[in-house]
Amino acid sequence: MSRKREQFADLPDREGSGSSSEIPLLSVRGGKRLRREGIRNLLIRGTNWIGDVVMTLPAIACIRRTFPNAHIAILVKPWVADVLRLCPDVDEILLYRSPGIHAGLKGKVRLAGELRERHFDAAILLQNAIEAAILTRMAGIPIRAGYNSDARGALLTHAVRRTRDVRQIHQVEYYRAMVHALGCDLVESGVMLRPRAEDQELADRLMAHHSLEKGAFLVGIAPGAAYGPAKMWFPERFAAVADRFASQFNARILLFGSSGDRKAIEDVQRSSSVPLLDLAGQTSLREAIVLISRCGLFVSNDSGLMHVAGALGVPTVAIFGSTNPAATSPMGTKTIVVRGKADCSPCLKKVCPTDFRCMKSIGVEDVYQAARAMMEA
């Protein structure tokens, strides 16, 4: 097998994974599982970042299957709420406004009071922090379940032992293992984000606003990464991939990211020989999601938008250097990882301590051929 071929890694097929054979079997303190009867009003404390939220969606689907008639509300920070609005397994989104009215001790007391008024029967804490356990205890929620992480086990009525093995598996399975230990059914997880009719209408309006014709082949590119520069492939190489798709397939190239990705976006534009539509910092998260859903291909560093594209079922090429695809690769069957080849990868560092050798080992042809493979699959 050639070195280039070794860089292409089809992701593990988590679609159709309905058994527990692929995840560690975990124990709950006292051997207690959640009772299925009597839980009609259920709170989930969600995670705080876009990619993490996407990787919890299969676990949320398991919770929904197990409690089909319950009202399921999820408590999350405002900046991830738009992801969950496309999740069919959630009935209501509650906003944890910190910074804002829920910041500080006074704000936490206020939030606990708001939750107390909702009379939740149970809370499942996907977030690992002790704060989630303290908050739900203050809210008087009688059943509080989650990993015994962050020294919070005594605050939980159903504490799942977080073993060394479970900390080493993919984050999707990490969360599924926890809810399975609590007694939730494991279910098939395919396309996890589904734009609604109003989302499709918004996408149509945005397409028209940006002069994107219906039926045009759209390629989304996300050259930024929030965690740090060690995760970022080179802008000139993203630009070269964009140029090839624009010239060979008459593709329109859309650049996605936040305002914090401005330098990377500008460097890609400067290196490209074709016009690129710059959407970074110009859209809300919801607008970015619905436009990504219209793309025929998405090319990205390891980022939150990479996870969104995979969960939407968009053919996705994920570029990994410093981070570990075994833990955070995008879900779905229409995804492929192009991984850097270096002895020091994955180092999990924010800033490369050497010479970006993992990213340098990934050529334009590597990413282009991976993208073609996704298009032809």
Per CATH, which architecture of the largest domain?
A: 3-Layer(aba) Sandwich
Count of all domains: 2
Number of helices: 14
**Residue runs with pLDDT of under 50 for 5 or more positions:** 1-7, 10-20
Helical content (DSSP H or I, runs of 4+): 25-40%
Shape assignment? globular
Name of the CATH homologous superfamily of the largest domain:
Glycogen Phosphorylase B
Strand content: 5-15%
Q: How far apart are the termini? A: 21 Å
The largest pleated sheet is described as:
7 strands, mixed
Mean pLDDT reading: 91
Radius of gyration over C-alpha positions, nearest whole angstrom: 21 Å
Order of helices and strands: HEEHEHEHEHEEHHEHEHEHEHEHEHH
DSSP strand count: 13
> What is the CATH C-level name of the largest domain?
Alpha Beta
For this structure, the CATH topology of the largest domain is: Rossmann fold
Spatial order of the strands forming the largest sheet: 1-13-12-11-8-9-10
Oligomer: single chain
Write the layout of secondary structure elements.
Elements: H1 3-6, E1 8-10, E2 41-45, H2 50-66, E3 71-76, H3 81-84, E4 92-95, H4 104-116, E5 122-125, H5 130-138, E6 143-147, E7 158-160, H6 171-181, H7 197-209, E8 218-222, H8 235-249, E9 252-255, H9 262-271, E10 277-278, H10 285-292, E11 297-301, H11 304-312, E12 316-320, H12 325-328, E13 335-339, H13 357-360, H14 364-376
Parallel strand pairs: 2-3, 2-5, 3-4, 5-6, 6-7, 8-9, 8-11, 9-10, 11-12, 12-13
Antiparallel strand pairs: 1-13
